[in-house]
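Fig. S4 source data, part A: sequence.
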Amino acid sequence: MKRAGDWIQTYSGLQFWPLDPRPEEICIEDIAHGLSLLCRFGGQCTSFYSVAEHSCHAANMASSNLSFAALMHDASEAYIADVCRPLKQHMPDYKAAESKIMDTIGTKFNISPEEFEAVKEVDTRMLATEAITLLKGGPQNWSWNPAEIAYSGFTFKMLAPAKAEAWFLDMFKNIKE
């Protein structure tokens, strides 16, 4: 059967079709590895800070019933990278692919769309906290004030990719058990 689009080869050696994802092609090791190598803020922060570490912090900040959804909330980026919010809103094809991948990840790991939606508040608060800490001079002239919602007393580990990957996999294992 012909698949939509073309495929990428993942870290584990699987073929993954970003436009036609299937649950059996989702691999947690691929997600952890890919996210550990992606830098938040398009790499425009003061130090390397991975999406994997961001996801682990989000899981720690979320309520226990949402910690797994928080850990996995950016998992699609392991397959299609990240696009910054100001640009993503003008990319309907990217958003459709991202949504399809997230639905497939939700199916694979039994995470509902409502759970992913409920994590958005934690993700936004993490964004605010990260911006204050990791952007040179902090967030400047944003249309909203990150300081109003940022987590207080928060510290980042700034983990190297291999350590962020290991932390992500450990959290996955601990939450799923």
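Fig. S4 source data, part B ends here. The two ends are 36 Å apart (CA to CA).
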